[in-house]
Amino acid sequence: MSNQYEKLAEQQARLKQKIEREDFKLRQSKYYENRQDRKARSRRLIQKGALLEKYFQADNLSVEQSVEQTEELLKTFADYVNAHKPNKLKNDQPNN
After folding, report:
1. pTM
2. What are the φ and ψ backbone dihedral angles of 10, each rounded to 5 degrees?
3. Residue 59 DSSP class
């Protein structure tokens, strides 16, 4: 009886370790996936920022207020751009 109990205890310990390993793999996979998503988003934002600087010459805005000035510049032209945006670039929901 004692031998059977020991075998069951060992099996339980092995199963717990296996669960812990699988849980670690799952967390690691989710972390990697989230990291890839963040990298892709950062790259996209950098590329769009570079285009903004290129076409609006926003790189000439002062460093201290560049974000606020850029927002002001975009607000100035947002209505016009959204009204004249080609259909292929229109979204169903505006990003306010």
Report:
1. 0.61
2. -65, -45
3. G
Contact between residue 52 and residue 70 where contact means Cβ atoms under 8 Å apart = yes
Residues of the chain with pLDDT under 70: 1, 59-65, 92-96
Torsion of CA 77, 40, 54, 74, to 10 degrees: 10
Distance CA 13, CA 61 (A): 63
Looking at residue 96, its pLDDT comes to 45
Q: What is the dihedral of CA 45, 51, 55, 59, to 10 degrees?
A: 70
Contact 73, 56 (CB under 8 A): yes
Cα three-residue angle 80-84-89, rounded to 5 degrees? 120
Query: Closest by alpha carbon to 56, among 38, 70, 43, 67?
Result: 70
Q: Which residue shows structure tokens 């927002």? A: 71
Say what the alpha-carbon torsion angle 84, 92, 43, 38 is, to the nearest 10 degrees.
160
